[in-house]
Design goal:
Four Helix Bundle (Hemerythrin (Met), subunit A); transmembrane; membrane
Length: about 190
């Protein structure tokens, strides 16, 4: 059977959804290993973020878009970021309230946007007809969206690694530089 001719009865085995399952495993694995191995923690998170771009590409390439896949992608994105919020609020307890508010805004903002698009009958949450020019730039320009997401996740990964890696000078300095470089677009995505 051709990949393009798959029917809804096997939507759970669509390539983009399998990528989504792998992303969940990577997020949970990075969370399980965060205290034991910073390098593997970073590799798992980086792979998770790269696969975030791959699942959308696979859905379009193989004509395997589905409501299940859209929901899985949103949940996987939120799960990945929430785990990073939790790690950072644990090691940066002085910022726990701010991180908690960012987490609520992140989850709430994505939920409100996705729900309003669904109610409006939009085929995609990435198509913005009217409204905020920054929202339109973010959702309708794949390069801007990709780089913003990478910078946002890099910010949170680097913030955590910077805080816990003081005894590993190279990792500590590298995490500092990636943290500083990611701030502008991480702030853009957060807004």
């Amino acid at each position: 059977m051709s990949l393009k001719k798959m029917t809804n009865h096997n939507v759970y085995l669509f390539i983009p959804n399998i990528i989504g399952y792998i992303r969940v495993l990577l997020a949970l694995s990075s969370f399980a290993i965060f205290q034991k191995n910073l390098v593997i923690f970073c590799v798992f998170n980086a792979a998770n973020q790269l696969l975030d771009a791959a699942d959308g590409w696979a859905a379009r390439r193989y004509n395997q878009t589905s409501n299940f896949g859209k929901i899985l992608d949103q949940i996987t994105d939120r799960l990945s970021t929430v785990l990073l919020y939790l790690l950072n609020s644990n090691v940066n307890s002085e910022y726990m309230i701010a991180i908690g508010l960012l987490m609520i805004a992140d989850i709430g903002g994505h939920y409100i946007h996705a729900t309003s698009c669904l109610i409006a009958g939009n085929k995609s949450h990435k198509k913005i007809d009217d409204g905020d020019i920054l929202l339109k730039l973010y959702y309708e320009n794949p390069a801007v969206m990709f780089v913003s997401i990478v910078c946002y996740e890099t910010f949170w990964i680097s913030a955590y690694v910077f805080k816990v890696s003081a005894e590993h000078l190279f990792i500590h300095k590298l995490s500092y530089y990636t943290l500083m470089c990611s701030i502008p677009l991480a702030m853009f995505k957060a807004v």
